[in-house]
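Lab meeting, item 3. Inverse folding demo.
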């Protein structure tokens, strides 16, 4: 915890999370002399990437891209080529070209073509840029071959229709739309994040590495907390078990004491109990002296000893901690993962020297 902006309250400096928020949700922001622009990713793919990194900490960016194919935008669309993605994942900076998902339909009656747009580029305003903006481009004669623009979008999804003139070709008009309108945009990736309070430019592997380190820290802190609570409870139960084993002597000592303080001191001296244990015995209700309740105390103590042994094992064994992180990551994937929405298609200029 740390003080908040005016030192009146305390706030957490880090929230423990099982999901790498930066990768899954993306981030955009401008600070003094710095800016960050991270695209969102698919939760299932990111979880697989984290597990792959845990299994092989020497995995390359190329290896991670087998699991995390590229950004996955909530609005769908089509990413053109993998060159920009690879650059962004290697260096932390790159440009991803994004297109709307469009297809051409032909009216069987009139033989006229229409361009149907069902998914739009991320952070594009449909009404302003894809309907009004295209209509202005048609009026300015920068795009020719479109007779009408209509927006039939509803709660079932997006459907923007560009009617093509009889003498024009749908594919040619679509290429003009990609060239001049917001049907094709680019997302400039700039992965600047605070690492230990300092801004750093991070590639894909570095982001996953820092997240796994954070998860390790969370698991260690959580286990230490659980262990402390379990040991405190076990300490009290051990006191109660001593009292139950010497029940008659305990009752006689309590009855002979003038005040609770004297009784507490007597229990501590007579049976070698701590103050906490002595208080617990004095606070114990009479019903806990029945046979069934005594068995319950013994069972709870036995269970706690197993829990304490397991928690100590977790703290001592890094491999076991990594297994916990892997299991929790796969559980998140199972519960919340979904299919990729943004397609990635090959583009010209995607060839590398090795190819």
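The presenter then showed the designed sequence:
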């Amino acid at each position: 915890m740390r003080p908040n902006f005016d030192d009146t309250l305390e706030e957490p400096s880090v929230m423990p999370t099982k999901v790498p928020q930066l990768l899954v949700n993306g981030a955009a922001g401008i600070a003094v002399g710095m800016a960050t622009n991270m695209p969102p990713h698919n939760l299932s793919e990111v979880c697989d990437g984290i597990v792959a990194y845990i299994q092989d900490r020497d995995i390359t960016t190329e290896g991670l891209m087998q699991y995390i194919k590229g950004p996955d935008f909530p609005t769908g669309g089509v990413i053109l080529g993998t060159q920009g993605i690879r650059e962004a994942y290697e260096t932390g900076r790159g440009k991803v070209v994004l297109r709307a998902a469009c297809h051409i339909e032909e009216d069987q009656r009139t033989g006229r073509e229409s361009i149907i747009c069902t998914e739009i580029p991320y952070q594009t305003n449909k009404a302003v840029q894809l309907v009004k903006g295209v209509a202005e481009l048609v009026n300015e004669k920068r795009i020719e071959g479109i007779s009408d623009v209509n927006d039939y979008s509803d709660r079932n999804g997006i459907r923007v229709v560009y009617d093509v003139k009889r003498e024009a070709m749908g594919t040619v008009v679509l290429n003009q739309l990609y060239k001049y309108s917001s049907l094709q945009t680019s997302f400039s990736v700039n992965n600047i994040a605070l690492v230990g309070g300092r801004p750093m430019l991070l590639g894909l592997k570095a982001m996953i590495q820092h997240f796994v380190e954070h998860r390790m820290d969370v698991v260690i802190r959580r286990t230490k907390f659980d262990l402390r609570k379990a040991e405190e409870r076990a300490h009290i139960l051990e006191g109660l078990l001593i009292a139950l084993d010497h029940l008659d002597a305990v009752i006689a000592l309590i009855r002979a004491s003038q005040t609770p303080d004297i009784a507490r001191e007597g229990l501590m001296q007579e049976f070698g109990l701590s103050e906490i244990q002595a208080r617990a015995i004095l606070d114990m209700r009479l019903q806990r002296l029945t046979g069934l309740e005594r068995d319950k105390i013994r069972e709870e103590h036995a269970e706690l000893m197993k829990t304490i042994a397991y928690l100590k094992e977790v703290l001592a064994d890094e491999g076991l901690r990594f297994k916990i992180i892997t299991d929790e990551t796969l559980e998140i994937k199972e519960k919340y993962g979904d299919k990729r929405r943004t397609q990635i298609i090959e583009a010209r200029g995607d060839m590398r020297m090795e190819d």
